[in-house]
Amino acid sequence: MPVTEPPDDLGTWLARDVEPLSPPPGTFERIHRHARRRKLNQALAAAAGAVVVIAGAVLIPAAATGLLTGGGGGPAGPAAAGRTSSAPAASSSPPPSVSAPVAPPPGAAGTGTGLSATTSGAPAPANFQPTSITMISGSIGAVIGQAGTPGHCGPPVAGDCTSLAGTSDYGTSWYGVSAPVTAAPDGGTGVSQLRFLNLSDGWAYGPALYATADGGRQWTPVPTFGLRVTALEAAGNRAFVVLARCQGAGPDYAAGCSTFSLYSMAAGTTALQPVTLSLPASGGPGVMGVAGVAGSASLVIKGDAANPEAGTGYLFAPSGDILTGPVGGGPWTVATRAPCAPGTAAASGAPLGGQLALSGSVLLLNCTGRGSPPGQLWEWAAGEPWTTVAVTGGSGTAQSLAATSAGRMVLATTTGLFVTALPDPGAWRSASIAGGPPAGGFSYVGMTSPAQGVALPANAALGEVFITRDGGQTWTPHRV
């Protein structure tokens, strides 16, 4: 007898036709609106990415990484407002040797943000007090100084408020850039000055020395043999560094300096190599100055745009000798005896007895001990004797001299800025300064073209950089 299976109610239910329920009113309209909004957001995101790539391509040459913002020396990240100092993460490995290369952290190539107002995400830190400025390429430059609230910065370095700020519009606006993790100058430690060779290779110094090869992402301390860096200039593919034995304490790190030496340092390394100096018999081999006698020294370099290695450097030695040497390497020899000696140094290490500058192939020297204050101007060309140009116009104590290839000169003093031009250097006049000269005058002035120049007030607490766009005739302050 066959066995009949019991009825399958589930199968019968599944076999029936199913009529779907109607969605709530307005469902299709909402789905359509969400889809349209999602497409719009995707299009905007793609457009924004294209703008960033284009801006970076315009501002950063293919041969240079560019000054970079960074947090803690990592591959990327904005610099923290109020404390933009950064350095490689702490490591148990020994410090780099004297010949160690300055290398970016693994995976850093091609990452980070260039020095651009449109791509940097980090504002300049509050209370920025610039002590040195370097213009790198066109309108791109950077300043170094202390920022934030002293005593409330760090760790890892107690009291570290050292910061950098960059500009891509010649000082009109500023934004944060990574800085070496170190404090303000204090005897033999800390830094206060800044120089960049290009958008990648730079040095922070005075009195210690730090180097970067990746536009500021990572800063490497450079051993200086217990000596202090009092001057540094870069050209070609290297920096030239003046090291001195000094007794100054606190922020006056360049006070009481003697027995100066000249070193060079190839970009991308921390290898300080002594430069051979051919000095008079009274000087030691490669050593300038007299032990126990305070002095100073300064450097200027005439570059060669067509052949960077063909430039010439000029060293104003403590004795008053002017030494010259090739940027591409080789010994430096005494070319002439200046009409004055550099004398003692200002807080930045710059000589107070004489301010050196170049106008084309002519060397200019303002001697503060000759003539009435702020000094007497002299000029010298290779193979010629020194010639008195004029008594320097203006008032106050001379601090810095700048000149252009077109013959315009600007002198920074403790009372203001004074300008003149060849062939009539006797016609000195006060530059027009918006708001009037700051109290204490200026500590530095530099001309980067016949029209454009920068100046720093002696009082860094003002937080300002002064800019000229008409050859030094008028100056306008811009707050960092």
Description:
With 480 residues, the chain is mostly beta strands. It has three domains: 64-87 and 97-105 and 113-186, no CATH class; 224-349, no CATH class; 353-480, YVTN repeat-like/Quinoprotein amine dehydrogenase (Methylamine Dehydrogenase, Chain H, 7 Propeller), CATH 2.130.10.10. Helix content is 8%, strand content 34%. The protein contains two helices and 30 strands. It has helices spanning 9-15, 27-59; strands at 129-137, 140-146, 162-167, 175-177, 193-196, 202-205, 209-212, 220-221, 228-235, 238-245, 258-266, 272-274, 277-278, 298-302, 312-316, 321-326, 332-337, 354-359, 362-367, 376-380, 387-391, 398-403, 408-413, 417-421, 424-430, 432-433, 442-447, 453-457, 464-468, 474-479. The strands form seven sheets. It has a five-stranded mixed β-sheet with strand order 13-17-16-15-14, with no helix packed on it. It has a five-stranded mixed β-sheet with strand order 26-30-29-28-27, with no helix packed on it. The longest helix has 33 residues, at 27-59. The chain is globular, with a radius of gyration of 30 Å. The termini are far apart. The relative contact order is 0.09.
Give, in spatial order, the strands making up the sheet with the most strands.
13-17-16-15-14
Helix content: under 10%
Shape: globular
Q: Tell me the β content.
A: 25-35%
